[in-house]
Structure formats: C-alpha cells, structure tokens
Amino acid sequence: MPIDLGGSGVTGIHVNVYHGVRRLMGLSEKPIRVADYSQMLAEVEKEVLERLNIDVVRIDRVLEPCHPDVNRMGWRIWRNPQGIHIEFPEHLEIVEEAGYYKAYLRGLYSGRMPKDGYYFWWGIHADIKPPLADAKTIEDIKDFNWDQYKFTDEEIENLRKKAEWLYRNTEYAIVLPGVTKIGGLHDAGGQSLRGWDRWLSDLRIRKPLAEAVLDYIMELYRYNIKRILNALGEYVNVAIVAYDDLGTEEGPQISVQTFREFYKHRYEEIISYVKKYSKAFTRIHSCGSIHPFIKEFVDIGLDAIDPVQISARGMDPVVLKRDFGEQIVFWGGGVDTQHILPFAKEE
C-alpha cells in the first residue's frame, strides 16, 4: 500500500505534531520549515520520508529531495503561539496586530491567526471579502480579472524544473498539487469567489450567474492544464484536479441532481483533459459526507479521492469498500483523524 505524508497540502502534518514526531525519532531540535503557512503544515524532511517509507512527494517541495534552486530561497524564523520555531519564506511577513498574528504575502494581507491559534484563518474568517461577492450580473462576471489565475511562463518553467529533477533523481511518485490557480468548481471555486452561502443560493435561484462563473473557471482549467501538462506531464504520476468539499459532517452540501446539473460534466472534461495531456492519475480532494457523489466520480473516470472522512455520516470505511472498493482508490480513510487521533486515550 502506498504511503503519503506531506505529498500535498491535504495530506500534510501540522508543525506542532511534526515537532513531536521528530522528537520521538530522536532527531535534533531545529526550526521546522513550513510547506503551507495558512494551515501551518510542515515540510517533511528527507530523513523522515525515509524512516517512514513514504512513497509520494509533491513537485513544489521546499526541502531535500528537491531541485537545488529551492535552497537559494530566503527564509525567516518565527516562534508560533505554542513555542515551536518555524521557517517560512522571506516574502511572507507575520506581524502582531489587533490581537492577532496577521500574514502579509508579498505585502498583501492574506490571513490571520488568533494569539493562541494553530493556523491562519482566511476568507470571511479573516475579514477578507470574496472577490465576486458583489457581482450582480453576467457582465460583472465577465469584467472580473480572470487572468490573475493563469500560470505564467516563469511559474510553469519553475514547476517543470522541479518535476524533472524529482523524476530523474528520486524514485518517489510525483504529485502535481494543482492544475489551476482556482482550486475547483464548488468549494474552491464558486464558494471561494462568491461566498459560501451566496454560492449555494446561486445554484438555486441565480443559475445563469452560476453557469457564467463556472464557464470562466473552466476556461482557466483548459488554459492551465494544457500549458502545464505539455511542459511537465511526462514527469507527473498523480494530478490533483480539484479541492472541493462537497460534504458537511451530516450529509452532502448539495443534491446529486444539482451535482449532475452543474458539476459532473465539467469534472469529466477536466479529468479527460488531464489524461489527454499526460499519463497522470487524477485525484480530487473532498471532505465530509460525500457517499452519494462517489458513484458519480466513478462514472466519469476519476482515479482517486481523498481524504475519506470516515467520521462523517455515511462514510463508514466498510461500506465504502463494499460499494466502491474495486472502482476507485481511497487516498486515506485509514484512521479517524477528527476524533481518535486528537482525543482518544493511548490504549
């Protein structure tokens, strides 16, 4: 069975927990480099990858094994609220303001952490308004700056060099953590652009507006996938094509009928596009109670799904194995990370 730790931003480990893992392994104390500052995820070091027999890595790693150019980046040291010293890129500044730690990415406010927090809030929880929250017409959608979500030639070349280096110098399976800068259609797409509840109402009472948003997102998918995978597709084993939490703790966010009306044919096109330009397996991240959607994903050729939130209603792993075990890969689901890992007794 392949093992993943840190192979993407949705299969990572928090810096505090990683600090404890290193201590249990008897490794020397040192600042922990952050792979994702918003979630405060640690970059898993080479010695830990090897000790735990990890099988996959993501292209944009910031510690060995990685392309040598990464070592030329500048890093800062910051002590988090729990006293762990971490390293983050020099283009990220963390300042103390109004009872929070606030993050500024290249000068742009991008999230905040409570003084006793563990990660940075973003979006409405950080008083950041969704960029299309005030859009009223299809013309408003058209006038939005969609080009900001296109990968530049420089960004693609940077990814290509990193992917080729990993391909030629390691035996790890290589994960492309995203094929577009808008991370999906639903949660990472419409809800991020319009707002969580506003997007749900769009799907019901403002359908032409919702269709327009999704059409522009799909244009970005086509543009980015073709360019990225033409450049580095031969080096990629797994491509994460969407980060769309379709479920809640108790059930799906939307009906299967709504999924079929707005999303299914678009996901199918995304998956077929990835397979057209590469031999990569496709994977979608979707938290929560999503059992009704798994058959829909199987129908359109999705290869794998994560995180498999077995604590959510209807996500019993025995049932999932029975219903879909021969049809799709469950990338996770081996343990209840929501209740057992943080709160259970040792025995």
UniProtKB/TrEMBL annotation:
Transmembrane segments: none annotated. One of its GO terms (biological process) is porphyrin-containing compound biosynthetic process. Pfam families: URO-D. One of its GO terms (molecular function) is uroporphyrinogen decarboxylase activity. Residues 190-305 form the Uroporphyrinogen decarboxylase (URO-D) domain. It comes from the Archaea. This is Uroporphyrinogen decarboxylase (URO-D) domain-containing protein. It comes from Ignisphaera aggregans.
